[in-house]
Every structure is written in structure tokens, then in C-alpha cells.
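Step 1: inspect the first sequence and its C-alpha cells.
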Amino acid sequence: MNYRRTVEQLEQNAALSWPVELADEDAGAAVITELLKTQDEFISILNFPVRTVEEFLNILPSATMRPNLFLKHLVVLSDFSGENIKRTITNLRKYIPSGELQYEWDGQVRAYCFQSLFNANSGNIKKKIGIEGSTLFQNYELNEYIKELIVLLLVGSNALDEETSAWFAKCEICNYLGSKSKLEEYVKQRYIWVSTISKGTTSNSLGHAAQDFVAEFLEENISLDGVRVRKDGSLPGVTHYDPASGKETNFDLVVSRNNNYVGIEVSFQVTTNSVIQRKSREASASYTQVQQAGHKLAYVVDGAGNFERHQAIRLICENSDCSVAFTPSELMRLAEFITEFLG
């Protein structure tokens, strides 16, 4: 079987978004898992046609979603970090001096009066709203702190005051409420994986989780005796980073048996970054050395962000013995390739 792929074949078989199973691999990703599971319910709440923010707040008690979880969805969708929430509370009298936020919605000027956030302590606000860590999984009531933050995240960018509008620039979801097609398009463009909030807290841990997941999958699905799967391993004789030093190159995973080796690089990026570019630049030199040493080189590549770099993925596909995406059937294909070579 030919295990090499074109970039088009690879993308056709790709998952593109983080599987929930992968998020479950890391405890720090539990929040992301919860958001993934409840995204459709979140969108359904936003689909209610309302004319004022007060009307919207009135429908929330009838929703089955926890108020703090709904707020967390808004925080992520608006890319409004916990630090931004603290700064908002500290400077709220600067942004809303009178306590009344004037904003435009559906062509009309409206107003909302704030009370609780004016007297809130930015240092302990997280205890009041329950959107971080384990508190997200607790049942919070729709208290005034949560209500007023929901208002800011819904209509902040529509504030008549320019400075206030600029601070809440991404808080514009009110412009899409009740419009299913526009709302779904907006959420797809702006949801979890483009948010620096989730990206900053989970990209590293989920990156390691991806490697762990592949390693465990191979251990369970390669039936040969004496197979060893190592993270951050090296291949004898492969020193392409610095041939003069003789220091062997590290690969994300190395599978070996009876002095035969397969190096594996794993990359799952849902937002585009430079990692896949670096891997593609190294691919040709790495593949040449691996071939000369009698070993094999494979790649596990997935994520919408990676496939935005088509040329980089193409170079990787051309300089590998096996390239697969991050799905069970694709990883089984990798296991079969390794079994054939090491058997």
C-alpha cells in the first residue's frame, strides 16, 4: 500500500477541529470540552428574536444552560479575557460615568442602567460569576453581576461613546441575535479556536495531549512484540539540525523494534501559526537523512489552521513515507504502516 498522500487527500480525511476525545486527554481542557458540548445550545439561545437587552435577559431563566456557562460562551466569543473583565470593573465609571450605558440596537438608541458592577471588587469578581476552572461546572444563579456582564458583552461595541465602544470593540453579538444564518456564520468565524483566551491557556497542553494520544493509540494497535514507543526520541544517524556536532535530532514520537526506527512528527493546529511552517522547512533535510540512515518518517497533521498553509503541508507530504490526519481510521493507517515496516 502507498502510504504517501497529497495535501488534498490528507485534508479530505482530516478532522480539522479538536476532537472532544482529545480535549479530554488534558484536565486543563475540561472547560473547552464543556464549551464544545454546549455550543449548539448556546446558539439556540441567541436565536431568540428580541428587541431589547432586557427582553433577552428575561428569556435566560427559562433556558437550561447555566448562567455562568452562558457568560463563559460570550467571554470566549467576544475574545474578552478575565483580565479585561477586571479592568472594566476598575474603570467602569470612566466608560459609563452616569451608570447608564447608551447604545444603538436595530437602529434605535437605547439605555441600560448598571448597579452591581459599580460596587464590585475587581479582585474577587471571579467568585461572583463562576467562569474559570472548576467553578464553571457549578450551578450559579443569574445574579446581577452575571446579568450586567452579559449586557456589556452583548452590546458594548454599539455604545454611543466612542471610547467605550472601542474598549468593547468585539462585544457585538447583539447585532446577530435572532438571525440564524448570520449568527451561525459569525460564530464559525469567531468561536473558540480563534480566541486568544482558549488558545493561550490550552494550545500547549493540547499539543502535548495530541502526542500522548497518538503514542497511546500506537501502543494499543501495533501488535508486534518488542515495539517501543517514545516521546521526544531520536533516530540513530539523523543529525540534520547540526551534522557537525553529531547531536541526534529529536522527533515528537519514535517507534522502534529490532534496530528499525520510525520518526513521527505530530501537528494539530486549529488556528494558523508558524509551527507547521518550521516543520515544512525542516522536512526535506530531515527526510533525506532519515532515508540515508534506513529509517522511516511519518507525519500526523490536522487542524484547520494547518491546512491554511497548503504549501507547507504539500512539502511535508512530499518528504515523508506516511502522512495521516487525526482520526481513528487515519491513525490506524499509521499503525498499519509502522507494522509493515517493523514486522
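Step 2: inspect the second sequence and its C-alpha cells, then contrast the two.
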Amino acid sequence: MEEEKKENEPQQVSRPSDMCHIPIKVIDAVDGDEPIVIRDKDLVKYIGPLARAVGAYNPNWEEHAIDVLPVKIPFKKEHVLFMFDTVRKYQQPTNETRVEIDYPETVDKDLDFLKDIMTLCQYCECDTLHGAIAYVAAQRLNNIDDVKVIADYFGFECDPNQSILDAKDGWMKVDYPE
């Protein structure tokens, strides 16, 4: 009788402690699309909300296998994949940085894409990547002479004839929308 009971019980499946399976659902996924799957525990450490979510499910997730239900990240797949690919590579420039910093994955990305990546980085608490992408965006904006284009990028109203540089203290004065 005891042997029959053991046969009907679910069996414990042994998994290697380094196993990681975290499906990520994105906003532009179509029904039937496979989610992005994170299989690297080290990547999880770089994404604050994801690490906390996995930690709530299993506090010892760094030592044990991770296999959780899909996690939603409300951004486009292209942006999420870019973040996953670059979050460990890019370092934020410092004031001591005097050389040209190379971020090759950003070369063909436009300012709107970079802005979306910065928003995603804020959402995922990837501060170092956020700083690196902000640096790239600032370098691109540095090369734009039309103040209207820059104001539009930041979402400000701008009168190109208005002087925004205060001659007394040298600071720029911007009227923020209320």
C-alpha cells in the first residue's frame, strides 16, 4: 500500500543549481511568439526589479535553480534585447574620461531609440547603462545646431528667438511646462 502511494506522488526533479529559465514577455509580442528567455543568472543581477521578483519567489535563487512564470517588461522586444546585450558591456563615462568612448551597438541607433533605452534602463534600474546611453545621446545632441530639434527631443516648448542664456551668470534658463 505504501509503495502505491509513492508511485502516485510527484517526483522531485533534480536540477543543476546553475540552471536559469526566466521567460520575459514584452509589449509588442504577438500571440504565439516565444518569450525572451534569460538563462544567465549573472544577467539577472544587473536588473534590479527582476532580481527582486526572482528573490521573492526563491530567496536563495543564486544558489538554486530558477524556473519561474513569465515576467512582463512593458517595453518593445528590440529595446529589451538591446539592454540585455549591453548592460554588462557598457560603462558610464566619468569626469576623468578624456578619451573617446566607443559604444559600437549605438552607431546605427537614432535618438528616439536611445531615449527609449534610457527609459527602459530607468524602469529596470540599470543606472550604469542609462548613464552610458545618456552620454551617447548627449554627444549626438552636441552636434545639432538647431535648438528647436533639441527642445523637441526633451519635450520642451522653444522659441528660437528667445535668449535662454543669462549673461549675468552664464546659466541656461528654461521655462518648464507645468
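Step 3: confirm your contrast with the notes below.
Helices lie at 2-8, 41-45, 48-57, 77-86, 111-123, 127-142, 147-154. The CA atoms of residues 18 and 65 lie 6 Å apart.
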